Structure prediction request, 659 residues.
Amino acid sequence: MKRLKLEEAILPPVVALLVALLVGDVLILSFGQSPAAVYRQLLEGTWGNAYGFGQVLYKATTLTFTGLSVALALRAGLFNIGAESQLAAGGFAAAIVGLALPVGLPALLVLPLYVLAAGLAGAVVGGIPGLLKARFGAHEVITTIMLNFIVLALLNYLISTRFKVHDTLHTAEIKSGALPRLSDFAAPFHGSAANTVLVLALFVAAASWWFLFRTRAGFELRAVGLQPPAAENAGVNVPGTWWRAMALAGMIAGIGGLNYVLGYKHYYEEGFSAGAGFLGIAVALVGRSHPVGVVIAAVLFATLSQGGLAVNALVPKQMVDVLQAVVIISMATAVPEVRRVLREAGSAKREARTAWPPPRSPLPASRFPQ
Amino acid sequence: MIAFLAQTLRIAMPYLFASAGGVVSERAGLIGLTLEGYMLIAAFCAALGSYFGGNPWLGVLAGIGGGAAAGLLYGLCCIRYRANQVVVGIAINLFAIGITRFLLRLTFGSSSNSPRLPGFIESGTGFSALARNPLVWLGVLALPLVGWMLYRTPFGLRMRAVGEHPAAALSVGVPVHRIRWLAVALSGALAGLGGAYLALDQHQFTDQMTAGRGFIALAATIFGRWDPVRVALACLLFAAAETLQIQLQGAQLVPSQFVEMIPYLLTIIALAGVVARAVPPAALGKVNE
Prediction:
């Protein structure tokens, strides 16, 4: 399969970031602040100290999971808009399992159990739209959006009627298998939410890469994403690949729920996903649906999210919400445009090469002494 | 019973406007994921217009303008630059949340709501109060007018052609791009009226005040199978379920969360086609070359 040309992969994110910087300038100036000062504050508050950096790592962890989830579905030609509810369902399932476990079991022993529970819940939520698409042809964009509302309402019902601690919207704390935070190993991270689920995120990213590019199933999945009829002719079960890809995408997003439930708060709280599922779409898009790109894009978007808090004293933190949206819009717009421009430039070059008589050499004449 | 019907109509109003926008957009081949964003931006613009202009009509005009501008942004990305409609649609919704919050801080110095705005009616919830709100009349007429346009005018015929088979439309000389541009602007303006209705009805703009209504309108558009009459009935059905839930709140018969699910569940069932399959316009979401 053809690989993306380097410039075709790099140019759109660069364009998107430039547009976002420009819009950011306008917003900052409208609040009467200096853009340079705000951007400096944004960088210092995120990468400039260990606490801020730890928060970036924590947010990037969740975004890596949801970004990988969206990216994997995209590789199969499907839009997974449901990462938001898959993430929440995964976190909820992990919390319920945690509440049922006896107190004080070691993390390594029960971790597989948590991963299984969160992954399974996410896979069910993701698999339903997959099955509806495979069996009835129902468009996965609409069904995943609708399922977001349904699942979140269901979780809200379960929490508010059964599992909540009085006067809160979260479950009781789980006492078994909580994972260590980074600050347990490196004191400067103290107070930040970064935790060892980070390692799990990188492992899942590596596993996704291996699955997509080194296994037969991954090859079939990409073939279905590129050209379903061609894949079908080659003997790939297209509907089967669709629902398996959606279930897998849901599983990855579901495991992402562990970052909050197991690594940070040790309980499930209503609304903890807080848009991370939707930002996963942005992460997958900017990361060009490649696991390495997804990890980089997750760090970028996490930096923006945390940076909003860092600059809140100067400009409203909602500025970064606008910037994140601008990055997505300009990225989505730049991708087809860059491809078109590069193709046209490419075909012009080809024409020049094959034209006869050949066009004048663009090199200066002095290099060819008469 | 009268009170029930009046409340249903009142709740249905934003759905009627926004799903009219949804029908126009989707019939021309552009996915209506952006309705939520149009409404939110328009609600904020309506608040600005009504507050600083001191007249609800200026709010309505600003709402229409804001919604249409958001629609044109969608058109710029997806018609002119052929960007993916799903991605841009989701992003426009995120943009709407962010920009209205930012501007709320900038103009009203608040992170939650605007000051009280002049509206059309000051108090009352019955039919007599509704009848004094000119937007209600407009809302009742929105979907029938869209239906008349789609099925009785040359423009509507062209729009349906563009949504079903743009290549064929192009081959007989229909200006596909121009029709799509008009469709997104009209769709934004209609959904914008829904946003303006919300802000003026509640006499203020509050953060994220559309609260998923744009998606319910999208659900109504799909559940009504893109046919204006059926879509209007779907809006009324969803609104009636909500009203029932509000009025039965004391009785605790069905948890409110399950009532919330009704529009979404019905839409999924309609799409999966167990009873009568909802088949979208053939070129929906496809980029026209």
Observations:
- Chain B has one domain: 2-272.
- Chain B is about 70% helix and 0% strand.
